[in-house]
Specification:
The chain is α/β, with parallel strands linked by helices. It contains eleven helices and eleven strands.
Length: about 290
């Protein structure tokens, strides 16, 4: 006789499969035989272990039944691709990392100005980020879609998105991966003037310790997705993701092994400027 525990788990798994198939994200649209293992995997962290009367180990799927956002859950449970061999990635070192400053956005919340060139405490934001990132990497690229001559005056190569119409940070990622001559890129936004001096070192440590493909910083409360360390060997994966019409950075991360680099002791290093009011407020605070 099949244990009732197993029947219950498979019924719940089937419910999750149905929800997953209804998601709007094409990256998560899979056939039922692919989705059921993921559904059962999602059950694992949802409850607690106990031994049933039949001697079989089971888990009580408590949280999963209450979760409304199945797409979010999927970001942390990756379907194994049996056809893909594990990618051998060499550990990052300073010489093998190209720093990438992402300055290619529209800056809608700042009225469309080129955010990297916005003055902060007497200097353009881009200068703060260049000074903070340069000592941590082997060389530097600036990803910009406007004012390229002005960005070029800082002495670092300037690359534009290969995808038109300001498609977000992933467009900057894929352009940088194509241009970089190193095995890794370390990405940061142009609007964060207070980079932690140990940011890249902690990203490297996270990759090594957790045997991951990608490392992403966390402030202890949430992931900071554009503060990342990514191997250029994943360029083909990212091009395919973008070709599918996807643009959400965390959904691409969900296709790979991701380590979190803990910077909970440096939460201020992720402060960014999204408006002139932000700039003025932070400038006052730095002068105290």
């Amino acid at each position: 006789m099949v244990p009732t525990t197993y029947i219950f788990q498979w019924c719940v798994g089937a419910m999750i499969v149905r929800r997953l198939q209804e998601t709007k994200s094409r990256a998560l649209r899979r056939s039922p035989h692919e989705l059921l293992p993921l559904a059962l995997h999602l059950l694992k962290p949802a409850g607690y272990d106990r031994r049933g009367g039949d001697g079989h180990r089971t888990r009580a799927p408590v949280v999963i039944l209450l979760a409304a956002d199945f797409e979010t859950l999927c970001r942390y449970a990756i379907l194994p691709d049996k056809s893909r061999k594990p990618m051998e990635i060499k550990s990052p070192t300073l010489e093998t990392i190209t720093g990438v400053i992402l300055a290619g956005g529209r800056a809608r919340r700042m009225g469309g100005v080129d955010k990297g060139l916005v003055p902060f405490a007497g200097r353009p934001l881009i200068e703060w980020v260049i000074d903070g990132l340069t000592p941590q990497v082997g060389n530097l690229l600036i990803n910009a879609n406007r004012n390229k001559d002005q960005y070029g005056s800082y002495g670092h190569p300037v690359i534009s998105d290969t995808i038109a119409d300001f498609q977000g940070p992933l467009a900057g990622f894929v352009s940088a991966m194509a241009a970089a001559e190193t095995g890794w890129i370390a990405t940061v936004p142009c609007d964060g003037p207070f980079l932690a001096p140990e940011l890249v070192a902690r990203l490297c440590t996270a990759v090594d310790r957790q045997q991951s493909e990608i490392a992403v910083a966390t402030d202890g409360k949430r992931m900071q997705p554009v503060y990342a360390l990514i191997p250029t060997t994943l360029a083909a994966s990212l091009r395919q993701f973008l070709a599918e019409g996807e643009r959400k950075i965390d959904l691409w991360y969900a296709r790979h092994r991701v380590a979190l680099a803990d910077l909970s002791d440096r939460p201020d290093s992720f402060v960014n400027i999204n408006s002139m009011q932000d700039s003025q407020r932070l400038e006052r605070e730095t002068q105290r």
